[in-house]
């Protein structure tokens, strides 16, 4: 009897269990791959498109909620920035991958690189660089 119930359970819920296991494995491999990335680094990032004319460059993905939140925040601040979408410019993804940055958004503010989106930290660095004023 218990063998019959187990077989029924697997038939009814086996696909869900498989999806959960695949999702858990994907999350583990994604986060273990990117755990060595420093969230904030300073340096020369001119090869990523940062210049005196465009001190803010962001690398985003079209399907990333954090990327959308970052763009909305920068638009709210009325800040000019260069947006490089990885879907529309795959060569740029190769540049990020070569720098071992496989996470979006990546924000370059003058000589500072931020990985991920942290509204408070982003605004603090923008204020330090004189691009916005914190009231």
Question: Layout of SSEs?
Answer:
Blueprint: H1 2-33, E1 40-42, E2 56-60, H2 65-76, E3 82-85, H3 90-98, E4 106-109, E5 112-115, H4 119-128
Parallel strand pairs: 2-3
Antiparallel strand pairs: 1-5, 2-4, 4-5
Explain what you see:
The structure is a single chain. The protein has 135 residues and is an alpha+beta fold. A five-stranded mixed beta sheet has the order 1-5-4-2-3, covered by helices on one side. The protein has helices at residues 2-33, 65-76, 90-98, 119-128; strands at 40-42, 56-60, 82-85, 106-109, 112-115. The protein has four helices and five strands, in the order H-E-E-H-E-H-E-E-H. The radius of gyration is 20 Å and the shape is elongated. The model has no long low-confidence stretch (mean pLDDT 83). It starts with a helix and ends in a 7-residue tail after the last helix. The longest helix is centred in the first third of the chain and has 32 residues, at 2-33. The protein has two domains: 1-33; 40-128, Glutaredoxin.
What percent strand? 5-15%
Major sheet: 5 strands, mixed
Structural class: alpha+beta
Oligomer: single chain
Residue runs with pLDDT of under 50 for 5 or more positions: none
The dominant shape is elongated
- Going by CATH, the architecture of the largest domain would be 3-Layer(aba) Sandwich
The count of helical stretches stands at 4
Can you tell me the CATH topology of the largest domain? Glutaredoxin
**Radius of gyration, in angstroms, nearest whole number:** 20 Å
CATH H-level superfamily title of the largest domain: Glutaredoxin
Number of strands: 5
**Number of self-contained structural domains:** 2
Average pLDDT figure: 83
* Straight-line distance between termini: 70 Å
């Amino acid at each position: 009897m218990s063998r019959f119930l187990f077989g029924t359970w697997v038939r009814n819920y086996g696909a869900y269990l498989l999806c959960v296991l695949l999702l858990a494995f994907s999350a583990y491999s994604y986060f273990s791959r990117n755990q060595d990335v420093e969230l904030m680094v300073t340096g020369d990032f001119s090869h990523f498109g940062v210049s005196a004319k465009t001190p803010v460059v962001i690398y985003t993905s079209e399907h990333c909620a954090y990327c959308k939140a970052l763009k909305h925040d920068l638009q709210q601040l009325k800040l000019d920035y260069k947006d490089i979408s990885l879907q529309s410019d795959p060569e740029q993804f190769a540049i990020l991958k070569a720098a071992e940055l496989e996470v979006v958004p990546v924000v370059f503010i003058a000589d500072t690189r931020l990985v991920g989106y942290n509204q408070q930290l982003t605004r603090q660095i923008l204020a330090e660089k004189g691009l916005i004023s914190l009231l």
